[in-house]
Design a protein that fits this description.
Blueprint: E1 2-3, E2 6-7, E3 11-13, E4 20-23, E5 34-37, H1 40-48, H2 55-72, H3 76-87, H4 95-109, H5 115-151, E6 157-161, H6 178-185, E7 190-195, H7 202-214, E8 218-221, H8 226-231, E9 237-240, E10 244-246, E11 251-254, H9 257-266, E12 271-274, E13 280-281, H10 287-290, H11 299-302, E14 303-308, E15 313-318, E16 331-334, E17 341-344, E18 347-349, H12 353-359, H13 361-366
Helix pairs in contact: 1-2, 1-3, 2-3, 2-4, 2-5, 3-4, 4-5, 5-6
Bound molecules: 5-S-methyl-1-O-phosphono-5-thio-D-ribulose.
């Protein structure tokens, strides 16, 4: 995607040095800054502190982290240590495990002297494949938007999305936003309702920034506004991303997604999740029971961060009484009965084991429960 007229991915490998470059997402939308990651520990920290975030990007970043580990010391002990450190950086997005499991066994098969080169090649491949995968998700999701546009030829299709599942959450294109970018590029009129997505406001800060940069009409709404808009015919379609989806089609995504799916169900509005197959956890079936939900720091709820235009800097202020505590579960699970379909790189599946296995028979077979 473009930033100020220049093409950018959210992560890339330096051509000159064994370094990885990322866009610092903690500073957007007010400051655009590129950060350099030099070690696998830097990389794990960048994932933990959400300098990079979004399930597919977390996977790609972990792959790059394993490359940095192999550059420093390609022994099996060191790579296993880096694997564990990266894997523990965030618990919910399964793309992290997917990327590391794809790389480590291949690295250990070759002599130590060849591991850094191979790690670079594999990390680059994971990044490039992510771009192609998300573009394919965009093409499949576009068919839904085109269909919705035919039903309302004289006004834009109103799409609600939650959190950030745009290009910043992946290497490029995004998942939920890929069909929206493609629809807009084709001249289909779209308007996006952007859930602000407390507590970290990825919708208000990142999704709104991406849509504005691409010229896509959008409106940021408070998280609690979606149900009201749906009751009043203001939403035609919901598309969200996912951090982990079970083989049976339960969709885990940013906290608050479940409530939007309930409201969509009550109002007969189609609710879709867009995700690459690397987000499907074939080893589990019951999302509510089996998906580990990240519990993040209380401070993300007790405080809010914003830009003080007079002081020209980011400020963080407390918004709840000093004596009150807060809880901060970062994700929730939308049971498959509330999901109308799953948009993948191979097509749109029903949220059911039969449909998902039919699209990805090999993955389903090799990663049985
Ligand atoms: O906590 P985050 O910002 O990493 O959560 C991101 C989301 O929940 C996204 O919706 C999800 O990763 C899908 S990304 C294409």
């Amino acid at each position: 995607m473009q930033v100020n007229g220049n093409p950018f991915r959210s992560i890339w490998l330096s051509q000159e040095k064994p370094e990885v470059l990322v866009i610092d997402q903690t500073l957007l939308p007010f400051t655009f800054k590129v950060r350099t990651l030099s070690t696998s520990s830097d990389t794990a920290l960048a994932i933990r502190e959400m300098v990079v975030r979004g399930a597919p990007l977390i996977g790609a970043t972990a792959a790059c982290g394993l490359f940095l580990a192999a550059v420093r010391n390609a022994s099996e002990t060191h790579l296993q240590h880096a694997y564990r450190e990266l894997l523990s950086s965030r618990p919910t997005a399964v793309n992290l495990r997917w990327a590391l499991d794809r790389m480590l066994p291949l690295l250990l098969e070759v002599p130590e002297s060849g591991r850094a080169d191979l790690a670079r090649e594999l990390a680059q491949r994971i990044c490039d494949e992510d771009v192609a995968t998300n573009s394919a998700i965009g093409n499949h999701g576009l068919t839904l938007i085109s269909k919705a546009a035919k039903a309302c030829p004289h006004r834009p299709v109103n799409i609600l999305t939650h959190c950030n599942a745009g290009w910043l959450a992946t290497v490029d294109w995004g998942t939920a936003l890929a069909p929206i970018f493609k629809a807009h590029d084709q001249g289909i009129l779209v308007h996006v309702w952007v859930d602000e997505t407390r507590p970290r406001n990825q919708g208000a800060s990142l999704t709104a920034w991406e849509l504005a940069a691409h010229g896509v009409p959008h409106t940021v709404i408070a998280d609690n506004a979606g149900g009201h808009l749906m009751q009043h015919g203001e939403v035609d379609l919901c598309i969200v991303g996912s951090d982990r989806t079970t083989r049976s089609g339960d969709v885990c995504n940013k906290i608050g997604t479940y409530l939007k799916a309930l409201a969509a169900h009550d109002n007969g509005i189609p609710f879709y999740a867009a995700l690459p197959s690397s987000t499907i956890d074939w080893k589990i079936s019951d999302g509510v029971r089996d998906i580990p939900i990240e519990e993040r720091a209380e401070e993300e709820v007790t405080h809010i961060c914003g830009h003080d235009s007079e002081a020209g800097k980011l400020v963080r202020v407390r918004i709840i009484p000093d004596g009150s505590s807060a809880a901060n579960p970062a994700f929730d699970v939308t049971p498959r009965k509330f999901v109308d379909g799953i948009i993948t790189e191979k097509g749109i599946a029903k949220a059911s084991e039969d449909d998902l296995v039919a699209l990805f028979p090999q993955d389903a077979e090799t990663q049985k429960i």
